[in-house]
Amino acid sequence: MAKVLVVTSGKGGVGKTTSTAALGAALAQSGQSVVVVDFDVGLRNLDLVMGAERRVVFDLINVVQGVAKLPQALIRDKRLENLWLLPASQTRDKDALTDEGVGRVIAELRSRFDWILCDSPAGIERGATLAMRYADEAVIVTNPEVSSVRDSDRIIGMLDSKTVRAERGERVEKHVLITRYDPARAARGEMLNIDDILEILATPLLGIIPESQDVLKASNVGTPVTLNNAESAPARAYIDASRRLMGEEVAMVVPAERKGFMNRLLGRRAA
Amino acid sequence: MDVRADPTRQLVRLRGRSYVAFVFSPVVPIVEWLAEIDATLARSPGYFVGKPIVLDLSAVDLSSSAIAHLVGSLNERNIRVLGIEGVEEDRLAANMPPLLTGGRACVITRNEPTQKPEPEPKKPTSLLLENPVRSGQSIVFMEGDVTVLGSVGSGAEIVAGGSIHIYGTLRGRAMAGVNGNSAARIYCQRIEAELLAIDGYYQTAEEIDVAIRNRPAQAWLEGDTMKITPLN
Q: What was the ipTM of the complex prediction?
């Protein structure tokens, strides 16, 4: 049974694209066939994070409008053969998406893949609503700060009312993924803590991704963080989250940076 | 196959059925009373058409011929008398309406339509929400109270004609008694509200006492001041 999962947040810059790529790669690594779909028409990024930007020929808009066939637009990942990308168009805007066209593309993807991960654009307009429209599950990416949490709350309300499942009286299964979490700053009260976020959102937690330099490093070389360095703290957190998506019970821990022995002895140069 | 039907004996079945009848109680002088009837008919011709009419003669003492004349006068006005009450049976001739007994008084509403309209289904006077109200959602219920079992998110709003009950944290706006119901109140398990309003009187988050924040609280109107006090 194919699952359509939307990665959304409302707010921009919280890590939707990074999380889509990382979760998609982690699911593919565990043997599932996965396609990641970029819905951010006009401001596409997922191709860069996946390292496929130089192989884009056709895109989602071409397929929605019937100009290209789906197999022509799908790009296979060079590292994982069961991971695919359906890129967005950079030259068009979100008005080029139609409800009916997106529905047709999603239906066709369902017949080919185990997981369809939709990378939603920020905002609550056409791009974001169409990205979530056909979703079975949703990952709501949230940073530990009040504006992000409130936007997530807004998006959860839309998932409960604007999706096909909601209109049929069914539920979209929702998960909160907290990204850019810094345990030290949270302990000092400079960030919202996990319990407060979950209390506000009243939605189960999928994982906690620690703030890390590894995320930016992986993005810059065009590799999902879970493929770039699977031993890094954020990669381990994403892999745990992907196992929870597949229904496994994984204890919730915030992975910390593993410091080498010499680092621990000689961590910082004194002035 | 034998399709012949046996001739079955028709049974006479008697059923009771009650009707509401207009009762005419003529008073002397009969001529003036008839003039009143004429005035009623002038205002709404056909008012008595199809309605069962009973003559109650207990207030007057009329002879047999006077009764016959009265019934005849009513017939001229297209008022057919169903039966007569309050008179000895021997005063009624065979061609007159029969004597009735055992009538009970009841109220007749004027211009009653012949068929009663379907009773309108009662509109609910309260709204129960089992899920949290999320940021950006607006719940408007003018007919009465709103009860929320979850929390009301920052940026969400509840507008109610009656009171508002929130069994979670109120982080958004709550506007109660918007129809001018100053007796409406707002209750919540934990108050972090952005704005509270009752019957148009409002307080913003800044004006709400810090000491009461994050606690169970209720808000109500005392005159034109809003009171917010902790619950229990």
A: 0.73
